[in-house]
Amino acid sequence: MSAIQISISAEPIFHLGQFVVTNSMFTSVLVTALLIVFAVCANRAVTSTSKNSRFRILVEFIIESLQNLTTGVVGTGKRAHLFGPLIVSFFIFILVNNWAGLIPGVGSIGIWEHHGEENIFVPYFRAGTADLNMTIALALISVVLTQVFGYSFQKLKYFSKFINFSNPLNFFVGVLELVLEVAKIVSFAFRLFGNIFAGEVLLTVMTALVPLIIPMPFYGMELFVGFIQALVFSMLSLVFFNMATIGHGEEH
């Protein structure tokens, strides 16, 4: 049996000029293309006259469930219409990327490359969320949008929680708020990356040791973990969006 090779960072698989394309980027592009096709088909199904289509029922169930989660946090109105599409996009994109790592061939189809005296296996496919660069990018989008929504609803008043020279205590609280915003990026990125990458490592090890029946329960567990992580990221983003739009002392 060949030695198990696990790389924390995504591996390059080809170049576009000077641009390096990694296996996680390549998989994410494929997932994005798949979601675009799904969105086009879903739009046609929803706008068609056939109300008994199973695909249409599935699409409506997914959208209505996510909309209900959104309205359950922010209520109906402007916030729900503004946040809803973003939360749905976060959830579906992260979920499909999480589950992409469980597809047979992902992580096991690739090439052997010679590096010095070593032969290193480089898979063609790797789940996008098993790459720290991807999770940091998603975290940055969430945190930056939080600031954008906060300013959109409260204008310059929003930034008073970060910069307040009225007294030393409020200034110190403002510094803590700034640190908290940075901590959100770290928390978002490493929580998602850690859970998905750890799951892939677990499945790789279990499959290498016992190829057949034993790994199956772990696949079921990773399906659940992938769903929960997508839900946690989306719901935390929604809560932070909502909190940013509510002024200090304002009741929800």
Write the layout of secondary structure elements.
Elements: E1 12-16, E2 19-22, H1 23-47, H2 54-74, H3 78-100, E3 110-115, E4 118-123, H4 132-154, H5 168-209, H6 216-245
Helix pairs in contact: 1-3, 2-3, 2-6, 3-6, 4-5, 4-6, 5-6
Structure explained in plain terms:
There is one protein chain. The chain has helices spanning 23-47, 54-74, 78-100, 132-154, 168-209, 216-245; strands at 12-16, 19-22, 110-115, 118-123. With 252 residues, it is mainly alpha-helical. It has one domain. Strands 1-2 form a two-stranded antiparallel sheet. A two-stranded antiparallel ribbon has the order 3-4. A hairpin with a 2-residue loop joins strand 1 (12-16) and strand 2. Helix 2 packs across helix 3 (78-100), helix 2 crosses helix 6 and helix 3 (78-100) runs antiparallel to helix 6 (216-245).
Descriptive terms for the model:
two-stranded antiparallel ribbon, single chain, mainly alpha, about 250 residues
Biggest β-sheet: strands ordered side by side in the sheet:
1-2
Largest sheet at a glance? 2 strands, antiparallel
Q: Give the count of helical stretches.
A: 6
Derived from helix and strand composition plus strand pairing, the structural class reads mainly alpha
Shape by Cα distribution: globular
- Content of β-strand: 5-15%
Would you list the SSEs in sequence order as H and E? EEHHHEEHHH
Total discrete domains = 1
Low-confidence stretches: none
User: Residue-averaged pLDDT, rounded?
Assistant: 85
What's the Cα radius of gyration? 22 Å
| Proportion in helices | 55-70%
